[in-house]
């Protein structure tokens, strides 16, 4: 049978990562956090001493990435420096093209023979998997997202300044939604969920109900 695909998009710290993991677990689907791929490309370029905004260097790093690449498991990918580098390489068309194959293969043939796949990112419902059975666009106000990110950093013992986190969030939002290729926006057939006033359990049950109605 053809694998079921659930596409979950949204801006940084919208809660889409946590939601995607819970959905994958509940349905027995494989999960791909596609942000990790862009982060890996960004970090590879930085490590090679390059500039993430340099198209050629970024494209080279993207073509070298494959599912077994050890960089995909590194904690270094979770840092803010990695996120900023990711959003720079993400604006390079060759990088997006190189990562498209990786993501589509995962969706078509979920690892472990899972009956479906959950992919989360910025352009899953619009570009990577436009035929996904269920599409969710998870969002929240930039202030709420910055607050959530700040709490997460504090929980991990990473010192951070509230105003810096908010500014970084705004800068990344602007880069992600204003770029020419695959900008962040909900697919026309996506279920848009603003989580500003919802907790993780409420978001989860609304998402499950939506997916249930589509699959
Ligand atoms: O989701 P995460 O914060 O890990 O993504 C890091 C960056 O990677 C985003 O800011 C975005 O620029 C880029 N990205 C993307 N398309 C995706 C996933 C991530 O452009 N599908």
Automatic annotation (TrEMBL):
Record InterPro entries: Cytidylate_kin (IPR003136), Cytidylate_kinase_dom (IPR011994), P-loop_NTPase (IPR027417)
Predominant subcellular localization, coarse grouping: cytoplasm
Chain sites annotated for binding ATP: 10-18
Coiled coil, from the record: none
CDD domains in the cross-refs: CMPK (cd02020)
Subcellular location: Cytoplasm
Reactions catalysed according to its record: CMP + ATP = CDP + ADP; dCMP + ATP = dCDP + ADP
Keyword Kinase: yes
Keywords: ATP-binding, Cytoplasm, Kinase, Nucleotide-binding, Transferase
GO molecular function terms noted in the UniProt entry: ATP binding; CMP kinase activity; dCMP kinase activity
Broad class of enzyme this protein falls into: transferase
EC annotation from Swiss-Prot or TrEMBL: 2.7.4.25
Transmembrane segments: none
Residue ranges constituting the Cytidylate kinase domain according to the UniProt record: 6-210
GO BP: pyrimidine nucleotide metabolic process
Example of a GO cellular component annotation carried by this entry: cytoplasm
Similarity field: Belongs to the cytidylate kinase family. Type 1 subfamily.
HAMAP family cross-referenced by the UniProt entry: Cytidyl_kinase_type1 (MF_00238)
Record-given protein name: Cytidylate kinase
Native source species: Azospirillum ramasamyi
């Amino acid at each position: 049978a053809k694998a079921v695909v659930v596409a979950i998009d949204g801006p940084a710290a919208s809660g889409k990562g946590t939601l995607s993991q819970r959905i994958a677990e509940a349905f027995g689907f494989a999960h791909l956090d596609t942000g990790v791929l862009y982060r890996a490309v960004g970090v590879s370029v930085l490590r090679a001493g390059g500039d993430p905004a340099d198209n050629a260097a970024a494209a080279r790093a993207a073509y070298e990435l494959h599912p077994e690449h050890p960089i995909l498991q590194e904690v270094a990918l979770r840092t803010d420096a990695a996120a900023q580098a990711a959003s720079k390489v993400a604006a390079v068309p060759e990088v997006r093209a190189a990562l498209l194959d990786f993501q589509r293969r995962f969706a078509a043939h979920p690892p472990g023979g899972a009956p479906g796949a959950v992919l989360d990112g910025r352009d899953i419902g619009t570009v990577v998997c436009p035929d996904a059975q269920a599409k969710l666009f998870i969002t929240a106000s930039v202030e709420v997202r910055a607050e959530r990110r700040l709490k997460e950093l504090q929980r991990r013992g990473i010192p951070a300044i509230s105003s810096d986190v908010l500014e970084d969030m705004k800068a990344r939002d602007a880069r992600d939604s204003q770029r020419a290729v695959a900008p962040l926006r909900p697919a026309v057939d996506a279920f848009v969920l603003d989580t500003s006033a919802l907790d993780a359990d409420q978001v989860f049950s609304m998402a499950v109900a939506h997916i249930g109605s589509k699959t």
